[in-house]
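Practice problem: predict the structure.
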Amino acid sequence: MSAPGQWTRPTKSPEQNSGAESLERDLRRTGQKHMSKIAVIAAAVILAACIVAKVLHGRAQPAGISTYEPNQMKDFKKPEAAELKKKLSSEQFAVTQQCGTEPAFHNPYWNNHEPGLYVDVVSGEPLFSSLDKFDSGTGWPSFTQPLKGTDIVEKKDSAPGMVRKEVRSKVADSHLGHVFDDGPGDKGGLRYCINSASLQFIPLEEMDQAGYGRYLEPFVKAGLIKAPMRETAILAGGCFWGMEEIIRKIPGVIKTTVGYSGGSTANPTYEEVCTGGTGHAEAIQVEFDSARLGYENLLDYFFRMHDPTTLNRQHNDVGTQYRSAIFYTSEAQKQSAERVKARWDKSGKFNRPITTEISAATKFYSAEEYHQKYLVKHPGGYTCHVLRD
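Answer:
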């Protein structure tokens, strides 16, 4: 229960954050309860104008793949054509949805020699590896085989004067290109001739962070990257939506999961945690590569993204569930946390003492699915976190 004059965040649900209603709700969450409908409508008009301008320009770039979730591919539903036209460039739409062909030698990936993964530009489904890419001299990206474990759909293409095998992605049903039998003989003899416009390239150093860590082993065997040294951290610092949006983008972070930790109630729901009676805090479980991102470096980001001096509160979010806490998973993490906290306390960055709790990690409970990567699903949604210098 809030003290008089204090405002606490409303209960979040999967139906929230849609259209102008979402904007009005998010503004209310930041304390602007009395925002007029006129301002809400004006903001929506400005947003619509920006979208129209991008579409009219004809080269709107696709929304970047934030994090690939393999388990969600079975539930993937391809957006309607109108929505795809907003997300894809005119060429990407023509190729993937209308079986078009881009110009040879005038596309971004035909001569790309960087190591990494090529994924479906529509769904993020992994398709090809740079390890199987070769220069066919045709002016289009060419591969000897699809990525192992990937199902590429082949269809007979009886265009006038020729018979070819068209290849399409299985999940999004995107037109990719064609497969021919004139590839390198020592590698199976096939040539997958693919349009760059059907693909998005994920550089090797970004694969783990983007959710494609399971495909790293061949690159490790090829000596292009070292195997990650995985470590887990559990951090709490207010609403987990905003924290996750910052943390997941930190170089060296492999995976983030929002949930509840530090309390006594088993298998808590969001509604139960919101009461403050479970003892749990909204927390982030962070899996990271300690060879690229040290634990103390991660904690430096943690202290930069929230106010660790407000007890049981972050901005308008009030209650023990919004406390600042570091739940250590080892004695080494405990010592590191105490060192970093003391250093930040003496840094002069804050005008009050740091109240961050440092305690042993207990069971971490993953939050409901609609909370995971919330700000990826709802760009512009509520957040009270910003990464300070």
